[in-house]
Design brief:
By secondary structure, the chain is an alpha/beta fold. It contains 6 helices and 6 strands. The longest helix has 13 residues. The protein is globular and about 50 Å long. Keywords: Methyltransferase, Transferase.
Length: 174
C-alpha cells in the first residue's frame, strides 16, 4: 500500500479513520474543491469526486445529483453558515465529518485577506453530534485528537493536551 508522506498529524488520523470504516470499493463525494487530502485519498485507491467550489450554503445541486455512496466533509462545516441544510441534502448513506473544535482559550479563526477562509462555526463535539441527530444520522464511530504546535506560551502549552480535532463516521437512519 502507498505510504503517504503526511504534511501533518490531521491527515494521518483522518486517513486511518477512513480506512477503518470503509474500503476502496466505495465512491466518495468530497465536499470542497480538490485539495491535498483528496489527492491522498485518490493515491490510497479511493474513488473521489470533489464539488466544484460552489457556495454549498446556497447551492446543494452537487449533493442532490451525486451517486456517491459516501460523503466526506473534512474541515468544511466550520466554514458554512448552515450545515443543517447540507446534511439534509446528502443522499449517500454514509458520511465522514471532521471539524476543528472550539477552543475556550482561542478565538475562532478568521483570515484577514481571504473572505472564504473563516470559521463561522467552531463546534464543541456535542453540537456536531446534535446536528447529525437532528438531520437523521446515527454516529457509528468518533475520535478526537490534539494538535500541538512547536511554540512557547500558554496557548501552545494548552494545545498539547486539549483536543483540537473531532471526526465522526455516521450512517443515515432509514
Amino acid at each position: 500500500m502507498y505510504e503517504a508522506v503526511f504534511p501533518n498529524k490531521r491527515f494521518k488520523h483522518t486517513l486511518e479513520f477512513l480506512r477503518k470504516h470503509i474500503d476502496t470499493s466505495e465512491t466518495i463525494l468530497d465536499l470542497g474543491v480538490e485539495n491535498p487530502f483528496s489527492d491522498i485519498m485518490k493515491k490510497e485507491g479511493f474513488s473521489v469526486t470533489n464539488t466544484s467550489g460552489e457556495d454549498l450554503d446556497l447551492n446543494q445541486q452537487a449533493l442532490l445529483h451525486s451517486q456517491a455512496t459516501v460523503v466526506t466533509a473534512f474541515e468544511i462545516f466550520e466554514h458554512l453558515l448552515n450545515p443543517f441544510t447540507i446534511l439534509n441534502a446528502v443522499k449517500a448513506d454514509k458520511i465522514f465529518i471532521s471539524i476543528p473544535m472550539r477552543l475556550w482559550f482561542s478565538p475562532a479563526y478568521r483570515s484577514k485577506t481571504d473572505m472564504w477562509d473563516r470559521h463561522y462555526h467552531e463546534f464543541e463535539d456535542w453540537q456536531l453530534d446534535w446536528l447529525l441527530e437532528k438531520t437523521g444520522w446515527k454516529i457509528v464511530a468518533r475520535e478526537k485528537w490534539t494538535n500541538p504546535v512547536k511554540k512557547f506560551g500558554i496557548r501552545p502549552l494548552l494545545r498539547r493536551f486539549t483536543d483540537r480535532y473531532y471526526i465522526v463516521y455516521a450512517e443515515k437512519i432509514k
